Amino acid sequence: MPKTRRIDEFVELLRGFTPETLTSGSVLEICQDTDLDDASLARYVHWNDALYTRNLIYRDDLFEIMAVCWQKGQKTVLHTHNGQLGWMMVNRGIAEVTNFKWQGCNAPEGQNQGGLDCVAGATEIRLSREHVETCGRGGQVNAIDRERTIHQVAVVGDEPVVSVHIYSRPIDSCVAFDLEAPRCYRRQLRYYSKFGDVVMTPADVQSLTAPGRSPAPPRQS
């Protein structure tokens, strides 16, 4: 049975890793053995009807830990993770993760440039839809790695979702895909709150969700 842990206890376990001891499997094992205490997570749970919110819990050079809060119908754009390792635990509701694999594009020379997985800019993109994972509390922990890095996350059903995401190492932008255009572009990653305090203003939300713009998480402060 998973152990009930406060979020601060969970963070301390992760802080025990070093770059030499960190592996995808070692963090996955801790995630699978943890049932996060709701009360300890409450200060990081913030909702917005216009967008899903990324709420920073902890960040250093090795780890970024967030609570992401999703209302009914909210989802990410299709995106990459710049070669990160990552793990997603769902603490409330049900989330569906659709995984894709890159098959080619008309700008492959932009890959692995300047420390980025891709500088983006392609207008012809070939992705294959691989499989779908359904994640709920006490169920599957979604993991990404350097091979499995492209996906979309969406709320399933009527209940809002609270998920906890662990990434190594932290990144500040990723590649997003608009398959209708078609195009890919670099997307700045942004926080709604940091360490329990909301840093996003209503004006920021309005500007990010104005007609003609793809919904995006708020600016990182």
Plain-language structure description:
The protein has 221 residues and is mainly beta. It has a domain at 45-196: Sandwich (Jelly Rolls). It has four helices and 17 strands. The chain has helices at residues 7-15, 24-32, 38-41, 202-208; strands at 3-5, 34-36, 53-59, 64-70, 78-79, 85-92, 94-105, 111-113, 116-118, 125-136, 142-144, 150-156, 161-168, 173-178, 183-188, 193-194, 197-198. The strands form five sheets. The chain has a seven-stranded mixed sheet, covered by helices on one side. A hairpin with a 4-residue loop joins strand 3 (53-59) and strand 4 (64-70). Residues 214-221 have low confidence and may be disordered.
Summarize the model shown.
The protein is 13% helix and 43% strand.
Overview features:
43% strand; globular; 7-stranded mixed sheet; 17 strands; 221 residues; mainly beta; 4 helices; Jelly Rolls
Radius of gyration over alpha carbons?
A: 17 Å
Sequence of secondary-structure elements: EHHEHEEEEEEEEEEEEEEEH
- Quaternary form: single chain
Shape, principal axes of CA atoms = globular
Count of DSSP helices?
Answer: 4
What is the CATH class name of the domain at 45-196? Mainly Beta
Overall pLDDT score: 92
How many runs of DSSP E, i.e. beta strands? 17
N- to C-terminal distance:
38 Å
Our estimate of the beta-strand percent is 35-45%
